Amino acid sequence: MSVINQRQAVVNAVKNVLGDSFTPNSTKVKEVLTIDQLKEVRNVVLKGILQGNVAYGKPTTDTKEVDRYVSGMVANYLRKAKELNGGTKYTPTKTGAKRDTTLLNLNRLLSNYTEGTDEYDEVKEAITARQQELKGIKASKTKVSKNAVDISVLPEELANIIE
Question: Cα–Cα distance between 96 and 140 in angstroms, integer?
């Protein structure tokens, strides 16, 4: 028997558990599955991985680790696979940490100056002040030319150092 990919393993397990009540690309499986059926889907996929019928990149010696992995994997495919989510394109509800535009542009500005210059020190102070104001947002340094800096979101006292 050949090894199938994880996505297909989840789809096949759902087909087996739900039977005729499952129609690919139209059934929203998360809304239909009971807790017991979800456990059964996970067990079918877990069994496939442990038997070597489903692709899995790590050794399967720690079955608890594999079980935790399968739980997350099944949840991901129920949400993301069009066959299982009613045929809709998956759109994440959270797109990650929202970056503060002021802090982002301060860092872009900082990358244009040499460490030790007055301008560099002034921008660095503004970054530190903004970080304290936002309570823990980490600054990211991005190498961008001065022209790409959005001056409208920078503190007024820094606008005069841009030529």
Answer: 14
